[in-house]
Every structure is written in structure tokens, then in C-alpha cells.
Design a protein that fits this description.
Order of helices and strands: EHEHEHEHEHEEEHEHHHH
Radius of gyration: 22 Å
Distance between the termini: 37 Å
CATH superfamily of the largest domain: NAD(P)-binding Rossmann-like Domain
Strand order of the largest sheet: 3-2-1-4-5-6-9
CATH topology of the largest domain: Rossmann fold
Number of domains: 2
Number of strands: 9
Shape: globular
Number of helices: 10
CATH architecture of the largest domain: 3-Layer(aba) Sandwich
């Protein structure tokens, strides 16, 4: 799917007053975009825009206000005299939370900002893009959404929902000519992560993260995830059986000296092994596919494919 360019219109980014949002806004300006920046902190938005005279539109607002976001969308396009071609839905809230300190108010806040705030923007920009048959949507989720992790009861739930939502939307948007991407960063040094008291492996500077995001979006990638040293171990966790998953996470987060690094190394090696097994499975299926007889209809072909895939899985289990 073709990525949006500055010639197509303007960019709009939420959560733009600090952190990843502000850095991405500046990176987009450097690439020739005019950028509308949204957050609640008007003073910070104005200070950011002042550094890029004429290239940023200050559009303060609260993403949890659906009607306010729809009105803001219209105001931005009128002020810019152009359509929003790229929207980056980045507003987010984070609070560490587990069973012992479960906080309903904080849970609701994260749902309203992270999940419903994204939906509120989508409800306004997506119909316009569908009508035009063009545009690009980027949703900032997190690697914390890959699977349930300790102390991320609310935050992880919202990010997991965003990842699933983007995957589901892609089926319809791609057919309509609208690109969608999900951005899954690891730990990035921002005011939001500055409050964390736990280790943050492979911590990235915000400027580095911003460059990775804009490059990934310009390339039209569906998923922009980084750094790989954190992404791949966490992707492995998605396919592990529940018992193994819980044992590995407990070991990695136990606080024992060296456990974090050893756990990361283990998961990277396991990711490579799983990739090898997937290649073997694909080779088995493809080799048997060449022997398929001409089928009178496609249902017979897919029935044969299902059997071949099942057979391939059993062979992989034997290898393990």
C-alpha cells in the first residue's frame, strides 16, 4: 500500500506535546510535511510550533472528547487549506498496575485515552479517507501489547486491543486504498517512562525512535516495531504454551542478577529456532503442494492444504 507523502496533504499527530509525539512531529517537518499537533498542553504545543514557524498548526484538544476531535479535524483542514493525508494516533497514558494495586479510575483513564481516544480520531478521519480512497493511518501501540506482562494490567490491555484493531482494520482499508500501520516501540526515554523504577532493557533515545517510526511509515510497513533485541523475544512469547510463557517471564523478571540478559538471550535463540522450524514447515507444505492433482474445485485443494499443514506441524514437534 502506498504511503502518504507531503504532496497528498498534511499530517496530524496526537500526543504531540512531549516525547515520541513531539519528536515524530519534528521529524515529519524535516521531511517536508506540514504537521498539525494535538495535545492538552497548549503552552508546550506553542513552544514546539515556534521552533518551526509556518510548518506546524497548533490544535489543542482532548482525544477522549469525540465531538471535540471531529470539530478539531474540520478546523485543521480549514486552517491548512488541505486534507489530512497522514494521521498518527499517539496519545497515551501509562501507570504501572497489578492485582494488589488495581485502580479502577486509572484503568478507566488508560482505556479512555489509549483506546477510546484512538477510536475517537478514527471515527472522524477514517470515513474521509475511505471516501477519497487514499490516506495513511498510524496507531502507536507497544510491544507490551504482544502478551500479558507483569505490572501492565491496564496499559498492556489497551495496547493489545490497538494491535488487534489495526490488524482487523487492514483487511477493509487495504481494499479501499487506505494504508494503516501499527507502531510497537520498546522502551523509549520520554517523560512517561522517566517514572519507571524497573529496568528498561534496550532503552532508546526519543530522536532515534522518531526516525525509526517515520522511516517505517514512509516505507509503507504495516508494523513498525523496535528494537529487534526486544521485539523478537517478545514475539516468541506470543507463540509459547501458557505454562512455558509464565515460567520464562517469571525467570526473566525475577530480579536475579543476570536473569534479564540471560532471558533475553534465550528468547532470541528461541526466536531463531522457531523461524527455522517455520521455514521447514513451509518447505514441507510447498513440496507436497507440487504433487497436488488437478482438483475440480478449490475446496478440495484447501482440504489437502490443511492436511499437509497438520502433517508439517507434527514433524516439527518431533524435531523439537
Amino acid at each position: 500500500m502506498r504511503a502518504a507523502t507531503p504532496q497528498d496533504g498534511i499530517a496530524w499527530i496526537t500526543g504531540a506535546s512531549t516525547g515520541i509525539g513531539a519528536a515524530v512531529a519534528e521529524a515529519l517537518v524535516a521531511r517536508g510535511w506540514t504537521v498539525a499537533i494535538t495535545a492538552r498542553a497548549v503552552d508546550r504545543l506553542e513552544a514546539l510550533a515556534a521552533r518551526h514557524a509556518g510548518r506546524m498548526i497548533v490544535a489543542a484538544g482532548d482525544v477522549s472528547d469525540a465531538a471535540g476531535m471531529a470539530a478539531l479535524h474540520q478546523r485543521i483542514e480549514v486552517e491548512a487549506g488541505r486534507k489530512v493525508a497522514l494521521v498518527i494516533l499517539n496519545a497515551g497514558a501509562w501507570q504501572e498496575m497489578g492485582a494488589g494495586d488495581f485502580d479502577l479510575a486509572a484503568f478507566r483513564l488508560m482505556m479512555e485515552v489509549n483506546l477510546m481516544g484512538t477510536a475517537n480520531l478514527l471515527a472522524s478521519v477514517m470515513p474521509a479517507m475511505l471516501a477519497r480512497g487514499s490516506g495513511q493511518i498510524a496507531v502507536v501501540a507497544s510491544v507490551a501489547g504482544y502478551r500479558g506482562l507483569p505490572r501492565a494490567v491496564a496499559y498492556g490491555a489497551t495496547k493489545s486491543a490497538l494491535i488487534s484493531m489495526c490488524e482487523s482494520l487492514r483487511f477493509d482499508l487495504e481494499k479501499a486504498g487506505v494504508a494503516i500501520s501499527v507502531v510497537n516501540p520498546g522502551f523509549v526515554r520520554t517523560p512517561m517512562t522517566a517514572v519507571n523504577e524497573f529496568p528498561m532493557p534496550f532503552l532508546l533515545e526519543v530522536e532515534d525512535a522518531a526516525q525509526r517510526i517515520v522511516k517505517g511509515l514512509a516505507a509503507g510497513k504495516f508494523e513498525v516495531a523496535f528494537p529487534w533485541q526486544l521485539v523478537w523475544p517478545l514475539k516468541v512469547l506470543r507463540v509459547l504454551p501458557a505454562g512455558v510463557f509464565f515460567s520464562v517471564v517469571v525467570a526473566v523478571t525475577s530480579g536475579r542478577r543476570g536473569a534479564e540478559a540471560a532471558g533475553s538471550r534465550f528468547l532470541v535463540v528461541l526466536a531463531c529456532r522457531i523461524a527455522q522450524w517455520q521455514i521447514v514447515a513451509a518447505a514441507i507444505v510447498l513440496s507436497e503442494a507440487t504433487a497436488w492433482p488437478s482438483a475440480p474445485d478449490s475446496s478440495a485443494m484447501f482440504a489437502d492444504m490443511t492436511l499437509s499443514a497438520a502433517d508439517a506441524s507434527s514433524r516439527i514437534l518431533i524435531m523439537i
